[in-house]
Design a protein that fits this description.
- The chain has 13 helices and no strands.
- The mean pLDDT is about 90.
- The chain is an all-alpha fold.
- The chain has one domain: Farnesyl Diphosphate Synthase (Orthogonal Bundle).
């Protein structure tokens, strides 16, 4: 029996982690061409596991667990194997597509930040978003570009904007749970004891700029990645629009969602629009 069975099993587990934790994001991944799909699932599984350590492993030594996970990540990439299936899957993607320390290290820095920082100024907010979201977009871009450095460099600013947009929408959607369950306030210069519609609008206008810039890059993506990325883009844009129609007080008291029935409609619309963009 060869290691290929372990490779496949590891990739299957990364896919399962992705499906269990994010049906919406996984929908976009499923629409990628097969050559990209497994590696993006592997990347999301890796990111999700690190995020779970800092967000949900209450009652355990999160700092030690995260440090161990980080050390194992670098070791797995260096040695080309890990007995942790999620890390084994990720190292396969990292080694094949060139996901290197310059993207992985900022991600871990943001995860470490979540262990001891509850509020942010503008500088730490920008740094956190870069490490927690923008570099994840860049990891995926590495996969889509398949070693074409010129293509990667040209699309890099747009991938960063898309990652930032997704993260900021998540922050808006999860304000209630971030405050009540994790004691975190991500947006700088906002008094969440008196969160107003004006505050919400200020944040939304900033996110809209990220979406507008990101769209330019989506049009330039390789064909096999465009529909999946565009579908995720449309989903998060619709989520932002729903948040915009929701009062600030409601956002502070409930998590805004897109119903599954509407997700199917968005999928069909995305497919048609992507075909028109490709024509």
């Amino acid at each position: 029996m060869s290691i290929q069975l372990f490779d496949k099993t590891s990739n299957d587990l990364s896919r399962r982690v992705s499906l269990n934790y994010s049906t919406s994001f996984s929908l976009g991944i499923k629409l990628l061409s097969k050559e990209y799909r497994w590696a993006v699932f592997a990347t999301y599984g890796f990111v999700r596991l690190a995020d779970e350590i800092v967000d949900t492993f209450h009652g355990f030594d999160k700092a030690r667990l995260l440090a161990d996970f980080k050390a194992q990540t670098y070791q797995s990439i260096r040695e080309g194997i890990s007995t942790n299936p999620i890390l084994h899957s990720f190292q396969l993607a990292a080694n094949q597509f060139g996901i290197t320390d310059d993207l992985i290290e900022p991600f871990f820095q943001s995860m470490e930040e979540d262990l001891h920082t509850n509020t942010h100024n503008q500088k730490s907010y920008d740094e956190y978003i870069y490490g927690s979201a923008e570099v994840v977009g860049l990891m995926c871009l590495k996969i889509f570009c398949k070693g074409d450095q010129n293509q990667y460099d040209s699309l890099l600013p747009y991938a960063r904007s898309l990652g930032a947009a997704f993260q900021k929408v998540n922050f808006l959607r999860d304000i209630k749970s971030d405050i009540e369950e994790r004691g975190r306030l991500y947006f700088p210069n906002i008094d969440f004891n008196n969160f107003s519609d004006a505050d919400k609008l200020h944040i939304i206008e900033d996110v809209k700029k990220d979406f507008e810039h990101a769209y330019i890059g989506i049009l330039k993506l390789p064909i096999g990645s465009r529909l999946g990325v565009y579908t995720a883009y449309i989903y998060y844009l619709k989520l932002l629009q729903k948040i915009e129609r929701t009062t600030a007080s409601e956002i502070m008291n409930q998590r805004i969602r897109i119903p599954n029935s509407q997700k199917i409609v968005l999928l069909a619309q995305s497919y048609v629009r992507e075909k028109l963009m490709s024509a």
